[in-house]
Amino acid sequence: MNKSKKFINYLDEHASKNDMNYLDYNGLMYVIENQYYNNIGILNPNKKKIIQNTYNTINNDKKLDNDKKLDNDKKLDNEDKYVKKNKVNIDKSIYTLTDLIDVINTNEYCHDTEYNIDLESLHKVKKELVALNDMIGMETIKQSVLEQMLFFIQKLDIDINGNSDYKHTVIYGPPGTGKTEIAKLIGNMYSKLGLLNKNVFKKVTRSDLIAGYLGQTAIKTNKIIDECIGGVLFIDEAYSLASNDNGDSFSKECLDTLCEKLSDHKNDLMVIIAGYEDELKNTFFKVNKGLESRFIWKFNMDKYDAKELQQIFNKKVLESGWKLDCDNGILNKWFEINYKDFVNYGRDMEQLLTYIKISHGKRIYGKDTDLRKKIIMDDIKNAFKIFKNNREKNDLPKHLQNFYI
């Protein structure tokens, strides 16, 4: 009997523990094995009954404790629901990204305050909104992104069955207008807003999706799309996935697979395609007629004027750690005269700056080191000659092909 009392006391000590670790469990088994088994390894009947009764008592006590804890938790939850919150009504008409950013800047989010708009989510995407608003030009697409975001952030896309409208988007425009950067900003925003559950952004081209054998393209395309579920798949120059020849079975296999996936993953995938409008309509959307109805959002990139192109150039010079050492009025006039030659906009500005650095290096060789990385009009004019001479070849001159900046 003394052994039974000791054992019950031993169990009582374990009953107070929420979790038994390995050492606790091992010690308990040792006591049972050495004190409550007979010589042939069978638990004595009277001891077995004592252990069972004690075990039931411990379980009942723990159940009462757990039930009490659950009741207290429910009580606290109910009390939280009736905590009086401050209510703030933000009455602001939103016409531009600047308007929306002003709302964020003038209204700090407080957890104990109830707002008539989702202010918490807006604060989460402030960085992306500011970055988009600060991009040079592109007023049309800024407006389009604003309208799309306000639609989704208010959950106006959700039907009574909990299904969402398509998020898939087309960005029409030539190369060098910032389509990739726009797509990345959209992906980051929608991830932070919870519209997409993963911060995944994958940029692909034809070679990533189309294989050299029939049957392999579908496998390759499915694999890429599956990697992007919950995030954004960005297909640049999407017209290259198709061809004017309707007999291109590889293209059709890819686009048929893509079309099916667009429907299967309305709620958890955003596909953004980019390219020239005419080429996309005559190739991509022509091969599979179902694609166009799945890309309900269509954004247009504005062409840059001379002033905006110069701003892009100035920004790239500054970001590269170089300086412009020329009259601003003369530079303005130069861009007004020549900007139409830069049909690829930002991409052409990068190429022009590369040629400027090369021309500059030749001009200052052997001269005062204070002249280094200070661009003058002669550098720009000489670089422009190289640019024009090599525009059609879209390459550096042969004598510069192995030259690295």
From TrEMBL:
GO terms for molecular function: ATP binding; ATP hydrolysis activity. The lineage of its organism: unclassified sequences, metagenomes, organismal metagenomes. PANTHER family: AAA-TYPE ATPASE FAMILY PROTEIN / ANKYRIN REPEAT FAMILY PROTEIN, AAA-TYPE ATPASE FAMILY PROTEIN _ ANKYRIN REPEAT FAMILY PROTEIN. This is AAA+ ATPase domain-containing protein. The keyword ATP-binding applies. Keywords: ATP-binding, Nucleotide-binding. It holds the Pfam family AAA. Gene3D superfamilies: P-loop containing nucleotide triphosphate hydrolases. It comes from viral metagenome. Residues 165-294 form the AAA+ ATPase domain. Belongs to the CbxX/CfxQ family.
